[in-house]
Amino acid sequence: MRWRLAGAAAIAAAALTIALIWQGADAPLSVSHGAHTTQASSTSLASPPPAAIANPAGGGESPALATTAPTDEAAQSAAARYAHQVTTLREALQAHQDAPGNLRAFFSELARHCDDAQACHALLTEILASYPDTAFAEMVARIQERLPHYEAAMQATVMSTSDPARARFEALHAQREQWLGVEETELMFGQEAAWARYRFDYGDLLQQAAHVPPTQRQQALDTLRQQHFTAYGAALHDLEGRHGAYQHALALQLAGVDDANEQQRITQALRARFFPPNDVAAMTARDQQIARQQETVARYQQALAALEAEFGPLQTQLPAAEWESQYRARLEALRREHFSTP
């Protein structure tokens, strides 16, 4: 089975690419900023209205003067909106520089503010024009220039699901570095790459967990987080979340444990570690509700099997309509008995 990456959506759908790779469904023009830029998008919004036309007859104002004030107001309003847009996006870019590794999110936000590539280029040029870090600004400009080539390469990329998931991801990452540059790829996809490698290594650890002493399993998991989260700690800890960290720890500790009581003890201990008492109580109540539902389903299935055993032979002894009527009546009664809310 083979799959082809979507070119135009390669940037916006990068997280989906990793999800698909993980699930096995599988599965991213170097100029300084300001050069060769079309200025139409920025200047047209801020341009003053045409000069008023004098009345050729010399008597009074031309009718065109009646629309001058509203035109001035519209132009000023458009210029103000554009200036606010530039300021907001420049602040967003600064935030992504301060928390690096996910610059693709900035380019997705930029694309929402312009209609085509030319307009996006002009808008980004305006954003970078007074950006305080010129080296970073030049790198962002290079990324924008290289994106079309990267997207075309992604569109042409075909991979086989018979290849290991990690190998497919690393091949994808290598193409990103080839078309965008190594530093540029780290800026764009660093967080995603760190998370993907953490998940791959966690999968390897989980496969080996049954042969690792319980006290060493959590240490191994903490080591993985330190290894992969170091550069993007806050962002990846937020991505994993408390519930995700609990699920990862729980799966490791339950590996190879078959005793139901021991499973329950481990689960309760980890819940107490990761969640406040109220949440633990709610989770326990939910467990009990699920257990009751499973017991009800099991009893219903047993009763249904008995009903089938009783009515099976009757098919040859009763008229078809009578058998159907009796069977449906008993089946409906059985369902009400087990599933009707008191």
Automatic annotation (TrEMBL):
InterPro entries: Lipase_chaperone (IPR004961)
Record has Lipid metabolism as a keyword: yes
Pfam family, one: Lipase_chap
Membrane topology: Single-pass membrane protein
SUPFAM superfamilies (alphabetical): Lipase chaperone-like
Keyword Chaperone on entry: yes
Keywords: Cell inner membrane, Cell membrane, Chaperone, Lipid degradation, Lipid metabolism, Membrane, Transmembrane, Transmembrane helix
Compositionally biased residues, Low complexity: 40-56
Superkingdom classification of source: Bacteria
Protein location: Cell inner membrane
Chain residue ranges for the region called Disordered: 40-73
Protein task: May be involved in the folding of the extracellular lipase during its passage through the periplasm.
Family classification: Belongs to the lipase chaperone family.
Protein name according to UniProt: Lipase chaperone
